[in-house]
Amino acid sequence: MRSLPKVLLALALMSGLVLPAHALTLSGNSLFTSGLPEVVTVTYLSSEAAYTNLMFETQPNTQLLFATNTATSGQSVSLGEIAANTELVFRLDSFFNGNQVEQWYSGPGSRNIDGTVHARITFIGNDTWQLAWEDLNFNESGYDGDFNDMIVNIKSAVVPEPATLALVGLGVGSLGLLRRRSRKPAKA
After folding, report:
1. Phi, psi of 100 (to 5 degrees)
2. Of 40, 63, 75, 175, which is most buried, counting CB atoms within 10 Å of its CB?
């Protein structure tokens, strides 16, 4: 029975080794999944834009997420399970009077026609990142750089690996075996 606390301590220490500190990671201005698959959810927060903006996921999938003229604060879209070490790339299409005027990408400024970063990404805690868009061209008059033209939160949760689940099962099974052994009467 004395070994039971040691086994519990060992299991507790091992369980802390199976998950990364943050599910998503920021490299440069690009957002990546960690070394494990993750389920990613994007939540619309707000918009302060004269343009109508449409936000898309462009990598690893392509889908419309939100439109500033129809999205409501708190509305969420699940991107599903994203493979390990995958860059999440988003796009903002800006329209004025029904005509597309600009198209911007998250990540490095080199992806955009004006060479400027248009998606500011900030870690806000609890495996959540905030992505704030700027929809105006840096090289044109009127550029305000306020990064409030669409704001969303990106939250992720690591998908447990089968090996991790097997380790947990092994630990629970071992505890049951130890309890069973400790209940057997000693032989005389």
Report:
1. -70, 125
2. 40
Q: Is 44 helix (H, G, I), strand (E, B) or coil?
A: strand
Comparing 169 with 103, which gets the higher pLDDT?
103
How far is 108 from 120, CA to CA, in rounded Å?
Answer: 10
Mean pLDDT of 48-68: 95
Integer Cα distance of 143 and 137 in angstroms: 6
- Bridge partners, 133 (sequence order): 119, 150
Q: What is the pLDDT of residue 110?
A: 96
DSSP line for 116-166: ---EEEEEEETTEEEEEE--S-TTSTT------SEEEEEEEEEPPPHHHHH
**CATH class for domain 22-159?**
mainly beta
Residue 10 host element (H or E): helix 3-15
Rounded to a whole number of angstroms, the CA Rg of the chain reads 24
Instruction: Report whether pLDDT(55) > 90.
Output: yes
What tens digit of pLDDT does each residue of 79-93 get?
Answer: 999 999 999 999 999
